[in-house]
């Protein structure tokens, strides 16, 4: 199968025939509209493609496969170790996609699903009351007069129609979780990899045997997507159940194997993951674990503070804020991009990134701001202080060793 590849945030030359083939593809045009990739025509690059912040793959039809790879080999696998991928982008294409069973994504998501299921099932499964219509000689619920009269009109005088309410776990959310477990088992049943994930799926599967999983399995792609959307919008769901459903949705809609019969009439989604967002989530999650019990770490959007006093149009929204009680002690912005190409001065951040960080620190009343970039060599460098007394630092971390680098490079004072 022909494979066209490019690297995220970089421009690749392609020949004229490939350029016209991609520009005429409906599926590829949708990827362009979603910001996954773009076609390039310049004086230096007559025909080219440029990846955005997303990595992933899709089938474009006619036996053509398209891939966007990470610029740092292994970055996707490393970041998935530390983060829930908050920006899993599903893009409908005109041909089916099934991620290889040995793909690292399925292993990671299956493990995350098992962890989420453990938390969810610890308090018991989510249940709802369901009404069953019963006809019998004894009253087993609320009597339905209309149906009972109809029975007697047909000569069935000894029968009573009742509506019986029963608390059941056979609800949409549990059906979808059971379906995700079936998908995990199908993915690793004949594979040399994923044995641990296969064992976990088989361990949890019996807990969903009383749930009509096949009702969810019989749905087409759109039906499954709608079922997940409906389940996630239920306000009574616990956070643990919602988290399990998010991983189940990625497995069922984007990663799992699809029956060949379905390929003939319905195309599942491609998958593309935003490494920029993934890097931010990974840093925030690892830093939270590193300072647990001493500080709190949260996104800047949770603060109701604004850049301009008296003007609520411009909110301060850094990627992360470290708090000692209610007082910010560190404001951080994560930048998943090449530092060398960011500024005229090699190895230094762009001026816009510095200005943005200073504004965030000033708005939040914090005197320490850090720009965090991925790099093969870890380091922490002071870039100086502003006239308002804000100290700015540049922190370079290795995605594969985030806990070690963040704990060593971002020392924090003893909480007051």
Please provide a brief summary of the model.
The strands form 5 sheets. A 6-stranded mixed beta sheet has the order 12-15-16-17-19-18, with helices on both faces. It is an alpha+beta fold and 416 residues long.
Outline the fold blueprint:
Layout: E1 3-7, E2 11-13, H1 16-23, H2 26-33, E3 37-40, E4 48-51, E5 54-61, E6 64-69, H3 75-82, E7 88-92, H4 104-121, E8 128-136, E9 142-143, H5 145-153, E10 160-168, H6 172-188, H7 195-204, H8 213-217, H9 221-232, H10 239-255, H11 260-263, E11 269-274, H12 275-290, E12 296-298, E13 306-308, E14 311-315, E15 320-324, E16 327-334, H13 351-364, E17 368-374, E18 379-385, E19 391-397, H14 402-409
Parallel strand pairs: 1-6, 16-17, 17-19
Antiparallel strand pairs: 2-4, 3-4, 5-6, 5-11, 7-11, 8-10, 9-10, 12-15, 13-14, 15-16, 18-19
Helix pairs in contact: 3-12, 4-7, 4-10, 6-7, 6-10, 9-10, 12-14
């Amino acid at each position: 199968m022909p494979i066209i590849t490019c690297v995220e945030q970089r421009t690749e030359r392609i020949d004229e025939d490939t350029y016209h083939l991609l520009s005429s593809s409906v599926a590829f045009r949708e990827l362009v509209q979603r910001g996954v990739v773009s076609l390039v025509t310049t004086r230096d690059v007559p025909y080219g493609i440029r990846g955005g912040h997303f990595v992933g793959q899709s089938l474009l039809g006619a036996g053509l496969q398209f891939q966007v790879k990470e610029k740092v080999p292994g970055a996707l696998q490393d970041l998935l170790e530390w983060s829930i991928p908050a920006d899993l982008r599903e893009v409908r294409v005109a041909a089916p996609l099934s991620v290889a069973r040995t793909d690292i994504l399925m292993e990671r998501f299956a493990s995350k699903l098992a962890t989420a299921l453990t938390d969810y099932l610890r308090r018991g499964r989510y249940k709802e009351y369901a009404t069953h219509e019963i006809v019998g000689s004894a009253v087993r619920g609320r009597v339905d007069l209309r149906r009972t009269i109809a029975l007697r009109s047909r000569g069935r005088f000894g029968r009573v129609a009742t509506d019986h309410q029963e608390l059941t776990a056979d609800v949409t959310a549990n059906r979808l979780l059971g379906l995700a477990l079936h998908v995990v088992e199908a993915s690793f049943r004949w594979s040399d990899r994923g044995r641990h994930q296969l064992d976990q799926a088989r361990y949890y599967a019996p807990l969903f045997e009383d749930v009509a999983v096949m009702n969810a399995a019989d749905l087409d792609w759109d039906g499954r997507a709608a079922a997940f959307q409906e389940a996630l919008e239920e306000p009574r769901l616990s956070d643990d159940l919602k988290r399990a459903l998010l991983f189940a949705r990625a497995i069922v809609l984007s990663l799992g194997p699809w029956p060949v019969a379905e390929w003939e009439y319905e195309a599942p989604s491609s998958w593309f993951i935003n490494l920029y967002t993934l890097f931010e989530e990974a840093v925030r999650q690892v830093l939270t674990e590193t300072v647990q019990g001493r500080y709190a770490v949260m996104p800047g959007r949770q603060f109701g503070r604004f850049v301009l006093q008296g003007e609520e149009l411009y909110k301060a929204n850094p990627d992360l804020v470290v708090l000692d009680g209610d007082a910010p002690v560190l404001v951080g912005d994560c930048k998943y991009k090449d530092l060398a190409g960011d500024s005229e001065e090699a190895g230094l951040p762009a001026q816009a990134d510095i200005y943005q960080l200073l504004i965030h620190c000033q708005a939040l009343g914090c005197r320490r701001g850090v720009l965090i970039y991925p790099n093969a060599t870890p380091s922490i460098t002071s870039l100086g202080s502003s006239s308002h007394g804000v100290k700015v630092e540049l922190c370079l971390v290795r995605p594969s060793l985030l806990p070690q680098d963040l704990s060593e490079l971002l020392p924090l004072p003893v909480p007051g």
